[in-house]
Design brief:
Elements: H1 2-26, E1 29-35, H2 52-68, E2 73-77, H3 87-96, E3 101-108, E4 116-120, E5 123-127, E6 135-138, H4 146-162, E7 181-184, E8 189-191, H5 196-199, E9 205-212, H6 216-223, H7 225-247
Parallel strand pairs: 1-2, 1-3, 3-9, 6-8
Antiparallel strand pairs: 4-5, 6-9, 7-8
The structure holds zinc ion.
Zinc ion (ZN) binds at residues 36-37, 43, 52, 106.
């Protein structure tokens, strides 16, 4: 009799786990990936004259690919294929799709006073070695979930550190255009309360500056397929860690 009860207990638990796993597969957490900027307003220009938008689009695709193999998550690039959506429409689309988190992919520059013009192949580009490394931004005035956004940024920062990336401190400098407040300097997390795409998001949201594209050597790394895959894997690891922690 005891053996029979044990059999039913084990069977019930395993059936419950199977149902939970099936539900997780049937309703994976939707990850909204936002490609920062648009084709016509492409953001910063790199040391070799490439628009930030192109870096953002390539890294977003690599992140989409890195997350696609995680059975509990479903990545969606929310502003593809035309990338013309405004910031409010991007967060509205993420909400309409039922996204569990929102990441906005960007690549960084520095203030104009740190840029030096250089002549390359008959064109003038602007470069700087003043700053390099990634930065993460969250809004703490977000109506839905400032704590969730902070936790998401912490998991991303930890994953980037484990992968060997350095955070950049240049957004905290006391100069016009910067003066961002730190949340966690060791993990590269800043507070950026007013940023519309973060403040309006109805789910945990982080803006990721993957690296500084006006830095000549960092640009080479960020532009390479291997560098993009490495960064995408680190970001995916952070997202997966946050999702598992949130779901448990
Ligand atoms: Zn940007």
């Amino acid at each position: 009799m005891r053996r029979l009860i044990r059999f039913f207990q084990v069977t019930t638990v395993s059936m419950a786990l199977t149902v939970a796993a099936t539900l997780a597969l049937a309703h994976p957490g939707l990850v909204a990936i936002d490609v920062g900027h648009t084709r016509h307003a492409p953001g910063a220009i790199s040391a070799r004259g490439v628009a930030e938008f192109e870096f953002n689009r390539t890294l977003a695709n690599a992140l989409d690919e890195a997350l696609a193999s995680e059975p509990g998550l479903q990545p969606v690039i929310i502003n593809a294929p035309d990338f013309a959506l405004g910031l409010t429409a991007r967060v509205a689309r993420a909400k309409a799709l039922g996204a569990v988190l929102f990441v906005s992919i960007h690549h960084d520059s520095v203030q104009p006073s740190y840029l030096t013009p250089v002549h390359q192949a008959g064109r003038i580009h602007h470069v700087s070695r003043y700053a390099s490394g990634y930065s993460l931004f969250v809004s703490q005035r977000q109506a839905c979930c400032p704590v969730g956004s902070r936790h998401l940024a912490e998991r991303l920062g930890e994953a980037l550190q484990v992968a060997g990336y350095q955070a950049s401190g240049h957004h905290a400098e006391d100069i016009p255009g910067e003066r961002r407040r730190w949340i966690d300097p060791a993990l590269g997390i800043y507070r950026f309360d007013g940023l519309a795409v973060l403040r309006q998001a109805a789910m945990p949201a982080v803006l990721i500056e993957a690296g500084v594209i006006v830095h000549p050597e960092q640009e080479v790394e960020l532009a390479s397929a291997a560098g993009q895959r490495r960064m995408a894997r680190a970001l995916a690891a952070g997202i997966i860690a946050w999702w598992r922690e949130t779901r448990d």
